[in-house]
Amino acid sequence: MERGFPPAEFQDRVARAQKWMQAAHLDALLLTTEPDVRYFTGFLTQFWESPSRPWFLVLPASGMPIAVIPSIGAELMGQTWIEDIRTWRAPDVTDDGVSLLTDTLNGLNAKRIGTPMGMESHLRMPLADWARVQVGLNGKVVDDAGITARLRAVKSDREVAKISQACAIAGRAFARVPEIAGAGVPLSQVLRDFQRLCLEEGADWVPYLAGGAAKGGYGDVISPASDTPLTDGDVLMLDTGLVWDGYFCDFDRNFSVGPISMHSETAHARLIDAVNAGADIVRAGTTAAEVFHAMDKIVTGGAGGSDAGRLGHGLGMQLTEGLSLIPEDHTVLEAGMVITLEPGIETGQGKMLVHEEDILITDGAPQFLSPRAGPHMVQL
Amino acid sequence: MERGFPPAEFQDRVARAQKWMQAAHLDALLLTTEPDVRYFTGFLTQFWESPSRPWFLVLPASGMPIAVIPSIGAELMGQTWIEDIRTWRAPDVTDDGVSLLTDTLNGLNAKRIGTPMGMESHLRMPLADWARVQVGLNGKVVDDAGITARLRAVKSDREVAKISQACAIAGRAFARVPEIAGAGVPLSQVLRDFQRLCLEEGADWVPYLAGGAAKGGYGDVISPASDTPLTDGDVLMLDTGLVWDGYFCDFDRNFSVGPISMHSETAHARLIDAVNAGADIVRAGTTAAEVFHAMDKIVTGGAGGSDAGRLGHGLGMQLTEGLSLIPEDHTVLEAGMVITLEPGIETGQGKMLVHEEDILITDGAPQFLSPRAGPHMVQL
Predict the structure, then answer these.
(1) How far does B358 lie from chain A, in Å, by closest CA?
(2) Are A217 and A124 contained in the same domain?
């Protein structure tokens, strides 16, 4: 499968952004995070793992984006479709890109500059430098009106293909779990080996892997692995966000170590029922809240939520992005959105089971990107 | 090797922070990023990969830290030494922790609240919510006076042991590169297999891996891998930041595909000379700039810097953290700091070689945590 995107894809993203910027009276967008910068440039590197240097992308109301970046990234940015690349030698203890960014925005005569300020956004640069930038600007920085998040929420066919590829890789890795897990194997070893399976099946890297294992359910779904060996009667859960060409999958699978208890089997089947209930109604025009309620009715009888929070979320360049399947999120789903259906069920005091699938929203029935699981848990 | 830290280690970190807070007239610290929150709590999870929820830690001028976090993290935070854990059901579209955080800080009667604002810091929460927090506070938010970064820069023996463990794992993986790389193997396959080797040798996960391969040197050190097969005469570079129990190593190795050219051999030997020159002078009391100049004299004859930027940096809970080996950084090194020595050398138009080692600063000669490489490049 082809990596990257043709320039036309980025031109289209820019054109749509600029149309919305015009409606929101924005003269420029300022972007600072890895996915936002990559969305308009194709700049893909794990180097963001280093917090030492800020990176900026300026999208004017018309014309092409301008990269304002550390010189160490000039070679790689030069391989993208971006032509206007302005660099400084970072880290610079006296002026770490502040004046270069300020000059760039002032040079555009930008009066209203939008930057993401809404939920799950953050500004990836030091607050002290942010204050300096604002002092130096002739214009004013305001919320980007959600433009960046809204654009990213609806995926192109090429983006869907990459997420689908990531899902297929994880699916093959999950199918091989019986090779690596069983009674007596420490959970930490299972997680290490599962990452290896993901790589062998084609993942570029595995930024997220959570696992739990306990009798009748696990305590939470975000803990790193302990060295405790699996024992008969445990339910083992593995939840991975692996990446292919910069796009994530995010789904989990549950396995029974030894014979499955009736209690766990029933709970698992109910989770699959909940996924089915969500899938039955989810399509362009449905709201996130409606999908939540369809699933919540199955897993809690309609309690309206739990501490685990949402029953799914958007997915794409990040492990989680965009909408949440919660009662208060009334986002209207659109064809091209990719979301997870992630019902959880309490199976006892402080214990739960969670199941997750990744789907593409269409005008009709959703398309499952993850290999849809059946009601029966796989026995190890 | 034991995972985690005893409560005494966290108590010591808190006590030192509170002493410095007193000197800086700070009534509380507010922390929002993964390493800063983990430093005072031990809260270790890959769940930060999801940007959807903010997480807060409040450290009062006296007493224990207070975790203000999404309820999905309560179980895991409850396993740390933290006792005061306040949660909300996130994501909450109307109030995503804003009032809980504000109430917590106002409840402490905090007038001056420090948060990291200096180089390489950022605030991990939405700007719109940050504005709301500041409106709701009785006190004022100011720079944390670098306290968090200064504390984290000097490692405890237990922290050094974890970094050392990560270095040893990477060292064993590098020793096995001849198993996976050679003429005809695509670079992307080498990177995938190298991650597998890191996991097999004991890495918990591999958040960073960069690679380059070309005749006589590579174009940059941050690109993801292409599918181009290695060919005789290439220099292959692999640079990894793998993690063991939340601590990174960060060093690279260069390999010759087939016989080594005299040009590459000489350049590589010069990089080792530069590391030796840095190691000869680096100890408690030396400045970052002095170490830079000792190495720069070898690699450029004393040009004073290049676009690749620094010749090393701090290391620990992040791939890169703290000081930079550049002419303008006059940070005085202290025993217990862990840094990298990372000289680079231009080997032609747009080509370079980079070598990197990880060392512990002591009162005498530095202790190499990475298995110190000799002048001869390994031939594949």
Answers:
(1) 16
(2) no
Domain end, chosen from A131, A153, A175, is at: A153
The domain that holds A286 is classified in CATH as 3.90.230.10
A115 and A57 share one domain: yes
pLDDT digits (tens, 9 = 90+) for B90-149: 999 999 999 999 999 999 999 999 999 999 999 999 999 999 999 999 999 999 999 999
Domain count within chain B: 2
CATH number at residue A53: 3.40.350.10
The Cα–Cα gap between B186 and B225 comes to 9
- Does A372 share its domain with A224? yes
| CB contacts < 8 A (A, B) | 229
How many residues in chain B?
380
Evaluate whether B250 touches B221 at the Cβ level (below 8 Å): no
In contact, A155 and A163? CB cutoff 8 Å: yes
Q: Is A262 exposed, middle or buried (0-12, 13-18, 19+ CB in 10 A)?
A: exposed
* B2 inside domain: no
| Tokens encoding A280 | 């039955």
* B133 shares a domain with B59: yes
Q: Where are the beta strands (DSSP E) in B76-233?
A: 84-88, 112-115, 140-143, 205-215
CA distance A121 to A138: 24
Taking only the tens place, the pLDDT of each residue in A262-307 is: 999 999 999 999 999 999 999 999 999 999 999 999 999 998 876 6
**Residue ranges making up the domain that contains B85:** 7-153
Nearest by CB to A127, from B117, B128, B328: name it: B117
pLDDT values of chain B reduced to their tens digit, one per residue, 380 residues:
899 999 999 999 999 999 999 999 999 999 999 999 999 999 999 999 999 999 999 999 999 999 999 999 999 999 999 999 999 999 999 999 999 999 999 999 999 999 999 999 999 999 999 999 999 999 999 999 999 999 999 999 999 999 999 999 999 999 999 999 999 999 999 999 999 999 999 999 999 999 999 998 888 888 888 889 999 999 999 999 999 999 999 999 999 999 999 999 999 999 999 999 999 999 999 999 999 999 999 999 998 876 667 999 999 999 999 999 999 999 999 999 999 999 999 998 889 999 999 999 999 999 999 999 999 999 99
Q: Which of A58, A82, A85 is nearest to A69 (CA)?
A: A85
Q: Is residue A285 part of a domain?
A: yes
Instruction: Give yes or no for a contact between B222 and B63, defined as CB atoms under 8 angstroms apart.
Output: no
**Claim to verify: residue A127 and residue A46 sit in the same structural domain:** yes
Query: Looking at B153, B178, B209, which one is the last position of a domain?
Result: B153
Contacts of B45 in chain A (CB under 8 A): 210, 222-224
Residues 31-50 of B with CB under 8 A from A: 44-47, 49-50
CA distance B155 to B316: 8
Is residue A135 domain-shared with residue A166, that is, in the same domain? no
Q: What is the ipTM of this complex?
A: 0.96
**B72 and B133 inside one domain:** yes
| B319 → closest Cβ in A50, A200, A206 | A50
Chain B residues in contact with A320 by the CB 8 A cut-off are 50-52
pLDDT of residue B125: 98
State whether B149 and B75 are in the same domain.
yes
Largest distance between two CA atoms of chain B: 69
Confirm whether A2 is domain-assigned. Answer: no
